[in-house]
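Sequence and fold:
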Amino acid sequence: MLSEQSAATVRATLPAVGAAIGEITERFYARLFEAHPALLRDLFNRGNQAAGTQKQALAGSIAAFATHLVNNPEQRPDLMLERIAHKHASLGITPEQYPLVHEHLFAAIAEILGDAVTAEVAAAWTEVYWLMANALIAIEKRLYAQSEQRGRREWRVVERTDETADVATFRLRPVDEGPVPGYRAGQYVSVGVTLPDGARQIRQYSLTAAPGSPERQFAVKRVTGAGAGPDGEVSGHLHAHVREGDVLQLSAPYGDLVLADTEAPLLLASAGIGVTPMIAMLEQLALDGHRAPVTVVHADRSPAAHALRADHEAYTAKLPEGRSVFFYERDAEGAGRPGLVDLADVDVPAGTHAYLCGPLPFMRAVRTQLIDKGVAPADIHYEVFGPDLWLAKD
């Protein structure tokens, strides 16, 4: 792990680097995209770049990794690294891209911190970067080796279903009619589309059917900025232009939020479009005949906005010990409970394993309530749609 000399230097400089990490990543991306504009056009999420969330995620992951190294020199934060590596693999990141990031990141550090970046400081933080980069490269190599699909594959839309005013489900089959690799309930695929300006943008969408089907199925929520940020380019394109017969490019399935092989009680909590991986998990549990208690919690704006609600209810009803509790901000009468998620009177059996997916404030609130009810933090798993800002704030 981190050498003793570098650990001392990183520990001493972490407050200064941490305080400036936002400026550093801002400058890093500006340099990177100026030198390689195709990366912004065809790889990075332009919406997240415009909103600044990708910059925060990079800053948070570097700071979190460095902090972990100096506080736990004998351990590696594998959970964080696995999550990042799965996202990278879905995007097709290669080892050759890591030196490129190093070049522009460390040039940005030197620009922002100036004379404070001595040779000793640069060497220590270079060691941090390559410890993180090489760990990610190794995990991504393993993920690529395990995958039954190489690169992108063309899939034809065979059915589109409008679930709500803002959510549509797409069901696809491979154009080449070849074998369909398996996956695990809870995983996602990267979907690539070519936009009107010629940019090739990529987004991740959770698969909403249990493994074993010769098809791929995912639901897309149309992202609207509503003045707070840009509208979703890819979600808007899929909603406006993609119909039955159209062809999309999909990656192999990736993602580390998957059901553990356990007979323990489970709690699946979601909010908004975070329902999508939970639907696949519930269907899988129903097919497996899971007999321990399964508590399903969902929060949404209203029953009408609750995408895949019929599936949510149907799969829960198939479980011998399944029960659901829905919370709605409005129009809850007869459909669920009013207001935000409150688990005060929801029974959470001892030994429960929890899976969360939704906006960060929702997941933080549910996680806190679960810990208060005795759920072990190690048994609470989560998925973030978009850059993982949990690292920057947790």
